């Protein structure tokens, strides 16, 4: 099983993250090796801290309204290598190692497997 | 100046895109050559259609509440090569050619130039 990197964000960095009206921020997961975009989901302040502390992607599921530790049920965990925030500090980007068969619940490697205009 | 590709999305694909309560969908711009993530911003149904029709990234500016044709003022346009939507059809991904000095208003190439935990 891959292992992630625990990331020591500064208190200023954590306090600077801007959440939306629901207390959420978009989090993009990018494959650290292929640089493919795997998925985008949402984090709140708690799951961002868990993600950085555990070195593993922990999202907030909007549909289930609960902590979603990616891979706990599917086995397809995402292990963090690097973490970035954008110029407005309202979008997060994680370079991850994808475990298992892929990121998508459909069985595809990336959630972005459908292309406008067809193949 | 680079030129983008006009993308003929099907009516079904366009109708299938899921917008949030404000009528917006997140749009990720990824450099088609380096695969670096340049930025994430928002589109509505109109600016998505403009983007696909013009082959150039057209966002909706939430702060200014207006159409934001990327690069019209900065010169840093983004020209579309490929366009994808995710498994829930509520996040878009565009592979683009970045013109000018970069995507970020700070002058950086990518908006994700700041890293948690320092360099």
What do these coordinates show?
Two copies of one chain form a homodimer. With 119 residues, chain A is of the alpha+beta class. The model of chain A has no long low-confidence stretch (mean pLDDT 96). Chains A and B meet through β1, β2, β5 and β7 of A and β1, β2, β5 and β7 of B. β5 of chain A pairs antiparallel with β7 of chain B.
Low-pLDDT ranges of chain A: none
Oligomer: homodimer
Strands of chain A, total number: 7
- Broad structural category of chain A: alpha+beta
**Helix share bin of chain A:** 10-25%
Order of neighbouring strands in the sheet with most strands of chain A: 2-1-6-5
Q: Can you summarize the main beta sheet of chain A?
A: 4 strands, mixed
Rg of chain A, Cα atoms, Å = 14 Å
Number of helices of chain A: 2
Helix/strand layout:
The structure is a homodimer of 119-residue chains.
Chain A: H1 11-16, E1 25-31, E2 37-43, H2 45-54, E3 58-61, E4 66-69, E5 78-85, E6 92-98, E7 114-115
Parallel strand pairs in A: 1-6
Antiparallel strand pairs in A: 1-2, 3-4, 5-6
Short description:
The structure is a homodimer of 119-residue chains. With 119 residues, the first copy, chain A, is of the alpha+beta class.
